[in-house]
Amino acid sequence: MAMTRKIAIPVICLAILFFLEYLGILAGMNNYFYDLAFRIRGPDKPLEKIIIVAIDEKTLATLGRWPLKRSIYAAALEKMRGADAIAFDVLMAEPSRDDAALAAAIKNHGGVIMPVVIEENMTLGYPSKTLAPFRTGHVHIERSIDGIAREVYHTLYFQGHMLPSLSSVLVEIAGKTTFPHAKPPTAKSDNQNIIQSDLMRINFYGGPGTFPRISMLDVVNGVYPPAYFKGKVILVGATAMGLVDSAMTPYSETRMGTSGVEIQANIINNLFMDDAIKVVPLTIRWIIGLTLALLLYFLFLRITEGRGAILLIFAIVLYSLFIFLLFSQKHIWFAPAGAYIAFLIIFAAAYIFKLHEAAVSLGITYEAIQPHLRIPEARGRSIIVRKGISGLLTPGGIQSQAFVLNDITNQLIFEKELSDRILLSDVFGVAVFDPKGGLVIANRDVHDFCRANTISLDGRDRFMEGLTPFIMEKGNEGALFDEWLQRTPMTVSLTKPDKQYLKVDISTLPVGEKQYSLFILTNITKLKEVEILKGQIVSIVSHELKTPMTNIMGFSEILVEELEGEMKHFAGIIQEESVRLTKFVNTFLDINRIEEGRQQIKMVPVLLSDLLEEAALTLSPLAEKKGIKLLLQKVVDRPTPVSADRDLTKQCMINLAENAMKYSPPNREVTLQIEETADTVRVNIIDQGYGIRNEDLNNIFEKFFRSSSEETEDIKGSGLGLSFVKEAVEAQGGQIAVTSTYGQGSTFSLVFPKAA
Predict the structure, then answer these.
(1) What pTM value is reported for the model?
(2) What pLDDT, in 10s, does the model give residues 169-183?
(3) Structural domain count, the chain
């Protein structure tokens, strides 16, 4: 049934198109292509024996105003007596006193044709009575509805008279042959009706001026000798402005008309050369066009739309080329408008059938997908879209298709966002709730721990309420969802089915214009156990090492004061190492407090220049002891305050300056510098020390890291100082930067944003 419809609908459309062309609806398009073919072909060379004797402006200016005396025509005939035939395109209906002279000249020549016309009042306009006995022919040219002359009827029957065309009579005389005029109608005809026969399409050789043209004045004055006209075919007619009975031709793209006498010259040339345009009948054209159209139609059904469009363009171009070659080489006109429209119709039909099948397929696909959609609105919507293209042609149908695409698109976005977030995290459990709080999806792990710990999954709010007692961070009791969004991640401690810690990340999942709630739970039990163990170790270090180290430092000081000689030296070493070990323990504990967020940071407006002065004052004795020149340099007198912790920032400055002096040879400078940019205040600690190798620069802020240069291998250090500075500065919203040239020195910078 579907294949029958695919064949029947295009055939019906083509039949309607054939009927429309038969009625002449496409005549205008065909005429346009016909004229275009002439212009593309260009002018052609006519026969040299056809000459126009023009009654031009020069003739009228010398021989008198229009109408010319017929004695002038008689004189011209005398000069052109060697011509094979002479045709006048000048109606001489009114008698004159020169008619006898002209009649004698016509009779003397023997090959002259006079014009005859059918007047607007439906009467025959013959030459005057004196000139009537000679051969005549009508000069009517058929103009189309657009005013362009393309055809001529060589035989007219009117009021019982047979009127041959002027051109056919001239060819009979010049060619000494007989023109095969159509036989007169057998039925009695109305005297007021014109019966036209022997239609011919004019093959124009060019625009105005294509045929040789000489002035009547020159002929009368004998400029051209009688021998010039021997064997010629002469057309006498008016070409002067105001006298010309002109008509548009296919070459009249500039809207410039061609005189009637020159159009007659084209017709005569066609008859002599037998190269008039032959028109292919409508039936033959449509047999060929229908065959090609159906062949293209079956190809269009089997290839993609893009390739179909390319094939359509190729077919039209190839068909046009065939028509033009047939026209220019064989003078055969194959009207193309019907075929062009047929090609477009079958292309559109093939495309519509494919669109229909796609729409039906979309409906089937939607019905198959709908039960599997997780979006509740889409799952519950009852939309029937298996109407094919008929559904697309109505507002409701288009809306249905839009709902289908929107549902599937939202589902794909939903699945992609969900899978992306799952794949990018170490996921233990996932739960998604719709904008109203209803559960959309939850994996098995979530169901298991909710069941074990009596946590409800009936809705988002009840799920949050069930998690609240297990949250380790305080302040989440009774909090709304928006507050949870701001506080995430949170840690949940569960005891069932076994002891485990879960990190809860909460975010929104946008699908279309709606916001879904996404809970991602990550099992961090091992990390939490390590963190607890770390805290226990730190506690041991804090309580079990600090007290003994304090005692060792105190007793070593007493021993240094009491002992003498070598024993005093040994006691000094104990004191020095205990101080270093105590400092190491304190720094280690400070770093851990900062990392765990237990360090109390008091952010207040601070002038870094004041802190730098205090640090310089504190470090002066150490600098003097090491033989280092400590310089304080202010690029700006009073920099803008920054928000920072005074004691922590000062300790960072002291640590960096101590490092600079420690890793500098004696008699060098260490510069404490402060400068200001548009957005920051910067403290630079500049030394002229040993510098840092490039390969070590990326590791110097790691805990316990120490560079391995020969110059610094004997310098004692814990590898924690720079790590402490980095943690402390970043905890305040600042940054630390370093530049170094090995063997020349280093610059460490503390960068703080200006206070708002």
Answers:
(1) 0.55
(2) 999 999 888 888 888
(3) 6
